[in-house]
């Protein structure tokens, strides 16, 4: 069936800010879909509140609105742009919910706008728990015994009929928010109450617990003619009970015979046909481990994280094909872009094994529970491809960048057999390491299987790796072994053994650690014996057809397939690895833009990355894609083959920067700012010298290695001081200390992770925090704009509300900032991007931090100023000057609108995480508010972040003494807005004294009703709770904040944020100015 | 133990010996199914061939004997990247290693199966030898490889005498009786019919048309099977006689090719065939695309086929080759792919229902 001619203007809804459960995969899907639509001559109107995305670029869509994703805003955009259709299935759950809301309200019908892709009826059938269950029953697909409940009482009554444990799944929530497993009535009541609140429709599915069954997923495509295919299936190594986003996943399924595989495949097709989905869809099954019994867990009638993974795992571009299907094409009319010969109506055949590991944020949230449940906690993921499962697992582990490189990386050797058996019961991110240790201690497969329910096949694969560890342990070099050296017990690192170790993807450094042979010697031994990685192609068809897409993965043993090209110029772009707090989608944005800019300049581009969720790992972004870990060894293997003329590291965040030294050793020139200059910015002493030279003031401080030294420096400077490790991202481990005791505590935490670099102790200055991104060509600089943070220093820049243009600093300060930026960029010989953070106190400007590389704010500032700084930086790196690029150097003219970046957090997903803001970054994403006035921009920014107030007009204030003064002012303003204010004793007193009516409420420890009861009463809009100085030790504050977050109540922990919020509410409005970013 | 795979073009792969220790010369083909290795090994159509699995991890769930598609394994050799030492499945009877040894199938593991597949794709299916003889003499072996032909393999794989499979009682309607000509039939063909309430009488491949007609079946099923269809001259002659009756006929794979040859069409050998579970076939009547299970190296040439005799009913979406014929004015339809699946997708199982409807005369009413 050819394209539907009535579809000319399509509105695509994005997924909004990155939160846990809804991450970069939707930028990938959305970008691919928009390009696919434009390819068909369709005009694309894009709406997404997330400025860090590639999909919101002007070359991706015709009209781009970075506006809050609410029905109200979408209605206004529809009225303005008059699209004929709307595509809601690419923006994750957020986009789908909005599409549904507009359809259900009748707005779409009254404006003649059609829902493309899948109908509202279908979405409802798949998403509404009861309708879904009824539909499954009708077509004979089994679901676990379950009931949709709308009250706790109904839930308790139902569970009496099916028994504990039960799984609870709230309807219409992201990443399983608010779900969980209840083993008894108390747990049931607690989870259910929370889940009911979080569900958009107040429904929770209570279901027979099938924990321990195999969890199998199918990615299915269907067109409007009813043709169906499955793109791939995936098996979760962690059985049902762990959210698939937090599971180790393997593709294709490994432990299913053809009978099981086809049974579930047919069921998936049966379901997608009955639901009449057109486009992509994900079906999750639970399969009984020792029978053919299965249950349908859920269906996602849209592209998803799993579909992004399936696309990267198979090479089949699901979003692209889904977009074409939405336009009316059938699968047999759509070409397979990978082979260019075959069609989309086939099923990919894999001739390799894919492993996905979740990137969990427990390094950021050290107080959080590491337990994995049905609620997703991962911020990102890595994928690896290899011809063996063991190899893929090893590659995935080292791709995580969490100081892990093999199954010995978490040490459980001190646990006894009994302790290990107990530890195995804990389902957390360290479970595979515990299994490895259990195997080392001789615990048999069956025992491990019975506890973990992980299939013995996977346990055996872990055993293969453990056996290799043992084989390598204490091996001598062949020649040393010949000499009969006693220490090695005659064990020899034979070439055969080394080959096998490399086949299993043991990195050289791990082999070195196990054998005691230097890493360099092992590398040489490998090279001398031709043991090198070769590259195989991901071609969707297991080599059955010729493919021209250079998408590669490495294996040891066999023929190299990577096409040897010899273009005039070849550049290596290093990606940024998994999405984590502090290094998010922004860096993928930069990598992709740099790649495009290099391509435009005539370079052959090569990307190395391992994140399946991103645009950079789409098959047609770079000339060649290597899906590989970003470690020196893995990169070196590619460098040896490709011999690039240079590498750029300044766009890939800390991941790429960390590889600089290794790249130089390999003889690869670093394009742009030199490595030693990057070092100079990070090395305290070198940097101090530069500041002295350039006469730029900074907070006094010192470099330390031990707690003793730290205390000495702190006492010399006077408390409070800022303590932080160097060379880290997102302020990881950064803390404000007010006493010697706190220094001790923080140094302990910092030193828990391996520290090769010194720790910095600085005097803490309180002032306005200012941030600039600039391009420097070696001489001139270009500053697109100055950003000012609403929160005072002390809150990490990534967690602050950022305002462009800066509106409260004087022209003198702006000039100083421009001048300091120029001096610093020149002193550091920056060629390309530089990011600097300043503190302004009165007319004085101090520098806090300099990063001679791209930063988190690059996409944001590029979009709101219309100055494409990544492209400019790339051109500069290639030798152009800023003037040659058509720009007058210096600070660019200020915009006549405001653009405010608002951080977005995922605290509700991480049980036990401390939510108060501080120097360590905690946000997972961001959104933008853009408008003619500051106040409207601020209102939109809060709205985009999901703060849609007022609702009940009741709030709680409980602040530390130092904040009481400000609390009065803010409280008064909330009171004026009609808010009823509850406050704890001393805050209430302060408020009353100043004439603000406040109702006193008891602390948690006091008698009911307490502040906790109030929050749990569901009638509170907002909690303002500022923790006491330093790290909050009061369980009260922590509990209040956690309860608020988990109850879905907005919780603010900084007075500046609170003030901004009240300002925005005072300026709430219904009509918005809508700004098309593409026209800036 | 070391093993070698020596190809007709002189390429030598060196790997590890698996299975039964025996030197073998065979035609080397590849299969892209990611699961279903046992069904592949027990599909009689692989007689005279050694199969390379493109999926690298084989044997993961061991061998469940009830999944066998015939009484024994048929390929001359088995070529894999990695054979799992762990067989994990609740139905597992034995491991793949044990099975290969028991079935006397030699094989090789640890080779770059993707490189091998690419050679076969580029140069076409070719013959090869699997040997454990480290001192092999390439110059002496290559002429032997070139000489090898699969020959008349149908005779080897067909049943020796007629037998019956009782159909399940599905409805009040009288059970249909189907005569299944076994050219190397996979068990699931008869099983698919029996599940739908047909009594299946299975005949050896060389059974004369008269004998079948005399048994008065409601329909005739022509099975899959190995080898070059043109070798089966005697069968083709008998099929012509069956064509001339009014008995409804449904044919799969080799059966489809033989019926086409019986009515004067031609077949030719494909460069490297279709073997796997992911091939899209399009039903030309409805425009619907189904994912099919496939295993064939020969294909019917429809170019000179008169529409008066038969018209294409299915084509392969990837390469446009013929995947099925509908016989004009006859109750006969034939497909190149495998609606009985095993291994592979179950999407085209509805064709057995169509056959039953045809036997019930419904198809005629529709026409």
Helix and strand topology:
The complex is a heterodimer of chains A (1080) and B (367).
Chain A: E1 9-13, H1 25-39, E2 43-47, E3 63-65, H2 71-81, E4 85-87, H3 92-104, H4 107-110, E5 114-115, H5 120-127, H6 129-138, E6 146-149, H7 152-162, E7 166-170, E8 180-182, H8 185-198, E9 204-208, E10 214-222, E11 228-236, E12 249-251, H9 258-275, E13 279-287, E14 294-300, H10 305-314, H11 318-326, E15 353-359, E16 380-386, H12 389-399, H13 417-423, H14 431-440, H15 445-452, H16 456-472, H17 478-482, H18 495-503, H19 508-515, H20 519-528, E17 533-537, E18 551-556, E19 570-574, H21 585-600, E20 604-609, E21 624-627, H22 632-642, E22 646-648, H23 653-657, H24 660-665, H25 675-682, H26 684-694, E23 701-704, H27 707-717, E24 721-725, E25 735-737, H28 740-752, E26 759-763, E27 768-777, E28 781-783, E29 786-792, E30 802-804, H29 811-827, E31 831-841, E32 844-851, H30 858-865, H31 869-877, E33 890-891, E34 898-904, E35 925-931, H32 934-944, E36 954-958, H33 964-976, E37 980-983, H34 985-993, E38 999-1000, H35 1011-1016, E39 1022-1025, H36 1035-1046, E40 1050-1052, H37 1055-1066
Helix pairs in contact in A: 1-11, 5-6, 7-8, 13-14, 14-16, 19-20, 21-31, 25-26, 26-29, 27-28, 32-37, 33-37
Chain B: E1 2-7, E2 12-19, E3 24-31, H1 37-41, E4 49-53, E5 57-58, E6 77-79, E7 82-83, H2 96-102, E8 106-109, H3 113-123, E9 126-131, H4 138-147, H5 154-157, E10 163-165, E11 176-182, H6 187-195, E12 198-204, H7 209-214, E13 219-222, H8 233-244, E14 249-252, H9 254-262, E15 266-283, E16 289-301, E17 310-316, E18 322-327, E19 332-335, H10 350-359, H11 362-366
Parallel strand pairs in B: 3-4, 4-6, 5-7, 6-8, 11-12, 11-13, 13-14, 14-19
Antiparallel strand pairs in B: 1-2, 1-9, 2-8, 3-9, 10-12, 15-16, 15-17, 17-18, 18-19
Helix pairs in contact in B: 8-9
């Amino acid at each position: 069936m050819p394209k539907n001619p009535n579809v000319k203007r399509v509105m695509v809804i994005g997924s909004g800010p990155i939160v846990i459960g809804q991450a970069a995969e939707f930028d990938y899907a959305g970008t691919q879909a928009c390009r696919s639509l434009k390819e068909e001559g369709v005009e694309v109107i894009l709406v997404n509140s997330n400025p860090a995305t590639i999909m919101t670029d002007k070359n991706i869509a015709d009209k781009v609105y970075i506006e809050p994703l609410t029905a109200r805003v979408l209605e206004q955009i529809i009225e303005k742009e008059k699209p004929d259709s709307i595509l809601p299935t690419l923006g994750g759950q957020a986009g789908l919910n909005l599409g549904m809301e507009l359809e259900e309200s009748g707005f779409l019908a009254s404006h003649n706008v059609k829902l493309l892709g899948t109908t509202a009826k279908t979405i409802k059938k798949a998403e509404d728990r009861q309708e879904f269950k009824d539909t499954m029953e009708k077509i004979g697909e089994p679901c676990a015994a379950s009931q949709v409940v709308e009250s706790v009482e109904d839930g308790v009554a139902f569970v009496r009929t099916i028994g504990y444990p039960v799984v609870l799944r709230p309807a219409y929530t992201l990443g399983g928010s608010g779900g969980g497993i209840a083993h008894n009535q108390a747990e049931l009541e607690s989870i259910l109450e929370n889940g009911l609140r979080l569900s958009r429709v107040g429904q929770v599915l209570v279901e027979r617990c099938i924990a321990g069954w195999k969890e199998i997923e199918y990615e299915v495509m269907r067109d409007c003619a009813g043709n169906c295919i499955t793109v791939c299936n995936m098996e979760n190594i962690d059985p049902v009970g762990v959210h698939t986003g937090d599971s180790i996943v393997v593709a294709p399924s490994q432990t299913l015979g053809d009978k099981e595989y086809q049974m579930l495949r047919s069921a998936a097709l049966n379901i997608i046909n009955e639901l009449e989905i057109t486009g992509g869809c994900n079906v999750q099954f639970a399969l009984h481990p020792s029978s053919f019994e299965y249950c349908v867990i859920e269906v996602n009638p849209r592209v998803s994280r799993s579909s992004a993974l399936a696309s990267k795992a198979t090479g089949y571009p699901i979003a692209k094909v889904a977009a074409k299907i939405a336009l009316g094409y059938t699968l047999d009319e759509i070409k397979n872009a990978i082979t260019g010969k075959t069609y989309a109506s086939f099923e990919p055949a894999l001739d390799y094994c894919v492993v996905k590991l979740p990137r969990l944020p427990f390094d950021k949230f050290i107080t959080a529970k590491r337990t994995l449940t049905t609620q997703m906690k991962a911020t990102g993921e890595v994928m690896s491809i290899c011809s063996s499962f063991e190899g893929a697992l090893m590659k995935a582990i080292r791709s995580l960048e969490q100081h892990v490189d093999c199954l010995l990386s978490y040490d459980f050797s001190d646990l006894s057999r009994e302790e290990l058996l107990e530890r195995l019961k804990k389902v957390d991110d360290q479970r595979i390491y515990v299994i490895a240790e259990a195997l080392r201690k001789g615990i048999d497969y069956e025992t491990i299987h019975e506890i973990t329910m992980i299939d013995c096949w996977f346990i055996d694969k872990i055993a293969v790796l453990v056996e290799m560890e043992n084989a390598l342990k204490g091996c001598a070099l062949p020649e040393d072994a010949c000499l009969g050296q006693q220490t090695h017990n005659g064990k020899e690192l034979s070439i055969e053994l080394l080959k096998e170790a490399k086949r299993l993807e043991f990195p050289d450094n791990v082999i070195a650690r196990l054998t005691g042979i230097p890493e360099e010697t092992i590398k040489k031994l490998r090279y001398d014996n031709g043991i090198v990685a070769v590259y195989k192609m991901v071609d969707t068809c297991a080599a059955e057809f010729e493919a021209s897409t250079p998408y590669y993965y490495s294996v040891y043993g066999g023929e190299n397939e990577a096409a040897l090209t010899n273009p005039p110029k070849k550049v290596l772009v290093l990606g940024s690895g998994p999405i984590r707090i502090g290094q998010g989608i922004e860096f993928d944005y930069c990598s992709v833009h740099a790649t495009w800019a290099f391509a435009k300049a005539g370079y052959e581009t090569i990307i190395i990355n391992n994140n399946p969720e991103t645009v950079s790992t789409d098959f047609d972004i770079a000339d060649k894609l290597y899906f590989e870990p970003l470690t020196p060894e893995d990169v070196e293997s590619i460098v040896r083959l490709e011999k690039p003329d240079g590498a750029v590291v300044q766009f890939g965040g800390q991941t790429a920067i960390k590889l600089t030294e290794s790249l130089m050793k390999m003889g690869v020139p670093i394009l742009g700012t030199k490595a030693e200059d990057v070092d100079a910015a990070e090395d305290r002493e070198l940097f101090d010298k530069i500041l002295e030279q350039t006469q730029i003031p900074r907070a006094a401080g010192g470099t330390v290695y031990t707690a003793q030294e730290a205390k000495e420096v702190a006492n010399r400077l006077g408390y409070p001081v800022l303590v932080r490790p160097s060379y880290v991202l997102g302020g990881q481990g950064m803390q404000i200390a007010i006493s010697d005791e706190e220094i001790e505590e923080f140094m302990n935490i910092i030193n828990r992770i391996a520290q090769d670099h010194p720790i910095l102790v600085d005097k803490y200055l309180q002032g306005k925090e200012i941030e600039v991104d600039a391009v420097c060509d070696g001489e001139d600089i270009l500053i697109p704009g100055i950003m000012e943070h609403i929160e005072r220093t002390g809150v990490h820049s990534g967690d602050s509300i950022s305002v462009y243009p800066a509106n409260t600093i004087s022209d003198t300060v702006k000039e100083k900032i421009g001048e300091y930026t120029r001096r610093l960029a020149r002193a550091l010989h920056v060629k390309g991007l530089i990011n600097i953070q300043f503190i302004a106190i009165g007319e004085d400007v101090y520098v806090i931090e300099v990063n001679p590389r791209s930063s988190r704010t690059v996409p944001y500032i590029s979009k709101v100023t219309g100055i494409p700084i990544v492209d400019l930086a790339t051109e500069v790196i290639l030798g152009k000057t800023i003037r040659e690029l058509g720009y007058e150097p210096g600070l660019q003219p200020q915009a006549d609108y405001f653009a405010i970046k608002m951080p977005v957090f995922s605290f509700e997903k991480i049980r036990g995480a401390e939510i108060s803001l501080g120097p360590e970054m905690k946000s997972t994403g961001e959104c933008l508010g853009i408008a003619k006035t500051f106040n409207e921009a601020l209102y939109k920014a809060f709205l985009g972040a999901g703060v849609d107030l007022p609702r009940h007009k009741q709030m709680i204030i409980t602040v530390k003494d130092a904040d009481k003064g400000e609390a009065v002012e803010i409280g008064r303003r909330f009171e004026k807005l009609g808010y009823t204010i509850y406050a704890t004793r001393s805050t209430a007193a302060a408020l009353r004294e100043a004439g603000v009516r406040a109702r006193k409420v008891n602390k948690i420890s006091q008698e009911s009703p307490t502040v906790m009861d109030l929050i749990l009463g569901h009638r509170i809009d907002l909690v303002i709770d500022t923790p006491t100085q330093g790290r909050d030790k009061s369980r009260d504050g922590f509990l209040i904040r956690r309860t608020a977050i988990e109850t879905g109540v907005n919780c603010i922990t900084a007075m500046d944020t609170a003030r901004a919020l009240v300002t925005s509410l005072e300026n709430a409005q219904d009509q918005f100015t809508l700004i098309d970013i593409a026209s800036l | 133990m070391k093993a070698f795979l020596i190809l007709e073009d002189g390429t030598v792969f060196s790997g590890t010996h698996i299975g039964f220790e025996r030197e073998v010369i065979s035609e080397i083909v590849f299969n892209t199914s990611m699961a279903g290795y046992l069904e592949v090994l027990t599909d009689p159509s692989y007689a005279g061939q050694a199969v390379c699995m493109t999926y690298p991890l084989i044997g993961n769930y061991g061998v469940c004997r009830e999944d066998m598609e015939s009484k024994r394994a048929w390929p001359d050799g088995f070529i894999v990247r990695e054979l799992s030492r762990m067989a994990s499945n609740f139905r597992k009877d034995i491991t793949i290693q044990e099975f290969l040894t028991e079935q006397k199938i030699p094989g090789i593991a640890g080779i770059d199966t993707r490189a091998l597949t690419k050679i076969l794709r580029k140069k076409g299916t070719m013959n090869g030898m699997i040997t454990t003889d480290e001192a092999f003499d390439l110059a002496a072996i290559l002429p032997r490889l070139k000489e090898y032909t699969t020959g008349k393999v149908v005779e080897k794989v067909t049943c020796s005498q007629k037998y019956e499979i009782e159909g399940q009682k599905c409805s009040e309607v009288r059970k249909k009786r189907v005569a299944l000509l076994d050219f190397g039939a996979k068990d699931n063909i008869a099983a698919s019919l029996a599940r739908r309430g047909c009594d299946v009488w299975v005949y050896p491949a060389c059974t004369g048309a008269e004998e079948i007609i005399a048994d008065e079946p409601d329909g005739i099923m022509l099975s899959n099977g190995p080898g070059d269809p043109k070798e089966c001259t005697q069968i083709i002659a008998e099929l012509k006689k069956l064509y001339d009756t009014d008995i409804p006929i449904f044919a799969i794979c080799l059966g489809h090719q033989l019926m086409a040859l019986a009515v004067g069409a031609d077949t030719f050998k494909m460069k490297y065939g279709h073997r796997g579970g992911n091939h899209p076939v399009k039903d030309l009547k409805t425009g619907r695309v189904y994912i099919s299970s496939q295993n064939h190296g020969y294909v019917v040439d429809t170019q000179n086929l008169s529409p008066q005799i038969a018209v294409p009913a299915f084509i392969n979406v990837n390469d446009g080759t013929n995947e099925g014929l509908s016989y004009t004015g006859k109750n006969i339809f034939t497909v190149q792919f495998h609606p009985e699946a095993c291994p592979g997708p179950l999407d085209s199982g509805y064709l057995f229902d169509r056959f039953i409807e045809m036997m019930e005369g419904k198809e005629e009413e529709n026409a």
